[in-house]
Amino acid sequence: MATVMGRHRRPQPPTAGTSLAKAAGVTAIGVTLPVLTGTAAHAVETPWSGVAACESGGDWSLDSGNGFYGGLQFTAETWDEYGGTRYAATANLATEAEQTDIAQRVLQGQGPGAWPVCSVRAGLTRASGGTGTATATQASSVTPAKPAAKAVAKPAAKPAVTPKKQGATVEEHTVRAGETLSSIAQEMRVHGGWQALYAQNRQTIGGNPNLIYPGERLDWREGGTAQPVPPTLPRPITNRPRPNTAAQAAADWALQQVAAHTTGWYNRCDNFVARAYGRSASGWLYAIDQWNGTPSSLKGSASDMTPPVGALVFWAMPDQPYGHVAIVVGTSGQIVTTNYPDDGDTVGETTVAGLTAQWGGTYLGWAWPDFL
User: Fold this and answer.
1) Which of 318, 313, 342, 347 minimizes the C-alpha distance to 330?
2) Can you give the pLDDT at residue 316?
3) How far is the C-alpha of 184 from the C-alpha of 161, rounded, in Å?
């Protein structure tokens, strides 16, 4: 559920049609933002303020049109499952206190892994997240949701979990965009939580349980044995094939945003490419930080103007220090980028060479995403 907003083009002062959150520079988690919305007066009071700053830049009314809502970036499904519709239809229509109340329920049900990147940055734990910050009036007028009972009432509505035909001891789950091991373990009712699920699927997932991809298939066998830890041998990452389904799905999602003319992406290039891969955040504040922090073994050459589909491409910009990142969607250097074509709120399609010439930036090269 996390987002980190990556600035890329010229910073512009806020106007009547531009939210203050978009115009504000994103600071380190736990530090008050230079300019925030009215609710940001509480930015340093709880870990939830830090999570929101990381997820949405502290914009509790954010609806960017990509399936995530509010300051803590709930999906509509999660918001409904944990009782949020008692407050509002989607999280962005609820108050900060109401969103925090539902977030605390999610925290107790799924743990901090529901916000895999931003919970770490904000220091969120089950203990520090509290058990209820909604006002007394709100708390007394809202009956606590019972997500466990609701989940039992409609197990067949989750088609991604498929029991195998031979017996009911093994279940399969195909990872969907936006999911975490914690949410999958809850959906599959795994005894032992995400740690047990990870132990049985370690060879599929790899060494980082926070890094799963849409299209991966996870199996759960009650009483099954943990898979051995794979050897941590260095791999030629530059040529490492990302799962074809994940890379192509990310490119397809980006192209869908162009076709649908979605808005809300101004100065959010880093967040856009993370969302393309089903992640709510990349873990970096700015695109240039992501490039500088990505191991060289993950990177391709700056002379390669036609990177593989699904790769991320980076620029250093002459008019701002934040850099820029876009995603490759075609085999001839086609990309989808934010702030395009008119440095506005939409995304558009161009090429690596075309954007380099149009914006005058320095093309740094490409890299496979590594959102740790």
Assistant:
1) 313
2) 93
3) 9
235 pLDDT exceeds 60? no
Task: State the pLDDT at residue 195.
Answer: 84
Q: What's the whole-number average pLDDT of the chain?
A: 73
Distance CA 243, CA 241 (A): 6
Under CATH, what is the fold of the domain 239-367?
A: endopeptidase fold (from Nostoc punctiforme) (3.90.1720)
> In the chain, where does DSSP find H-type helix?
20-23, 47-56, 76-81, 96-110, 118-122, 136-141, 147-153, 181-187, 193-200, 202-205, 244-260, 269-276, 287-293, 352-359
Cα 141 from chain centre: 32
Which class in CATH covers the domain with range 151-221? alpha beta
Q: How far apart are CA 177 and CA 288, in angstroms?
A: 25
Compute the radius of gyration of the chain from its Cα atoms: 21
CATH 1.10.530.10, applies to 20-143: yes
In this prediction the pTM is 0.41
Is 163:149 a contact under the CB 8 Å cutoff? no
| Alpha helix positions (H), 57-177 | 76-81, 96-110, 118-122, 136-141, 147-153
Domain segments of the chain as ranges:
20-143, 151-221, 239-367
Cβ-Cβ contacts under 8 Å for 156 (sequence gap 6 or more): none
- DSSP class of residue 353 equals H
pLDDT at 30 over 80: no
Tell me what the mean pLDDT of segment 52-57 comes to.
Answer: 82
Total residue length of the chain = 372
Element (H, E) at 200: helix 193-200
